[in-house]
Amino acid sequence: MIPSLRVSVWPSCDLACRYCHKEGNPHPGRHLQDREILEIIQAALPVGVVKIKITGGEPLLRPYLSDLMAQIIRWGVSLTLTTNGTRLSLWAAKLREIGLKRVGVSLDTLDPERFRQLCGVDNLASVIDGIHAARDARLPIELNTVLMRGVNEDEWENLTDFAKTIAARLQLIELSPAAQSPEFYECHHVNLDYVEQVLQEQGETLESVQDPSDRPRYRFHGVEVSLCRVVDMNQTMSKRRQGLRLSADGKVYSFDYRQPCLADLAQAYRQGTRGKDLTRLWIHVGTMINQNVPH
Questions:
Q1: Domain boundaries, the chain
Q2: Which residues contact 133 (CB under 8 A, 6 or more apart)?
Q3: Which of 12-26, 67-81, 237-251 has the highest mean pLDDT?
C-alpha cells in the first residue's frame, strides 16, 4: 500500500540553496528523537514499506545518524540517503560499512562562483571531496541536479562527464514551484523535454523502463541519466508518487509538496499510540493517498 517512505531526520541545513523546498515543511516543530523515528517507521513496515530514503534539511548533521540507519537496515529495508555532500567525506566509509544502498548528492554546478551564488556559501570543494570519498569507499552514488534557466542549464552535459569519472548515476530534476515565489519559478523553470530529446537522439533508452509513469532513464556518454519531472496530479500516478513523506517533526505528507499534512504521528506517539495502533494510522494515510491516484 505504501511502497516507499521519505524520512526527514533533521530540519536544518548548512547551505541555503535558493530553490530549496524544505521538504514541504518550512517551519518544523520539535524534531523526532531516535526512538520515536524507529518506532514510527517500524509501524509502517506491515503496510508494505520496502524502500526508505533518509533526507533533511541536511541529514548528516544529525548526531548518531549511522546508528539510526543501521537499525533500519537490519529490518531488511532498502535504505538510501540524500545529502548536500558538505560532510560526506566524514561519513562515506561508515555509510558503506552499515550497508547503505546508495547515496544521492546534490550537485547543481561544477563552477565555484555559481555554487556560491546558488547555495549561499563558498563550499563546492567540500562537496567534491565528499563525492570522491564516497567513490573511494565504493559507495554507489547518484548525483542530483536541479536544472534552472540562467543558472546551470548549460552544465548538464559537463555534469554527465563528471558523473562518468566517478562511476555515478545522474538525475536531472525539474524545478519545483512548491517553495519558490511564482516569479522565481517563472524566471528559472526549465522544461526537461529538450534534454530528453538529446538523450533520445544521442543516447540509449534503457530497456528496463516499461511503464510510461516511470522516470525516463537513458545511457548517455556511458552514464545512466534519469529525468525527474514535477509532480502533475493529472498524469498517471507512478509508484514513487504513491509513497509518503515523514517530516522531521513527525508529520506525514504525500509526495506532492502542495498537499497538506495527512497525519501528525509525532502527536499520536506522544499521546501513547504504539505498535498496531500506529500501523493503523499508516494504513489510514496510505488509503487516503491511494484514493487520490487517478485512473
A1: 4-291
A2: 88, 89, 92, 93
A3: 67-81
Rg (CA), the chain: 19
Closest C-alpha among 13, 19, 11 to residue 117: 19
24 φ/ψ sector (left φ>0, alpha ψ -120 to 50, else beta): left
For residues 86 and 83, what is the distance between their CA atoms, to the nearest angstrom? 8
Q: Are strands 141-147 and 169-174 parallel, antiparallel or unpaired?
A: parallel
Whole-model pTM?
A: 0.91
| 172/186 Cα distance (integer angstroms) | 18
Helix (H) or strand (E) holding 263, with range, is strand 263-264
Q: Are 168 and 180 in contact (CB under 8 A)?
A: no
Q: 145 in helix, strand or coil? A: strand
CATH architecture of 4-291: Alpha-Beta Barrel (3.20)
Rounded to the nearest 5 degrees, what angle is found at the Cα of 240, between the Cα atoms of 195 and 39? 140
DSSP, collapsed to helix, strand or coil, labels residue 240 as helix
* DSSP class of 148: -
Q: What is the pLDDT of residue 238?
A: 43
Q: What is the DSSP letter of 257?
A: T
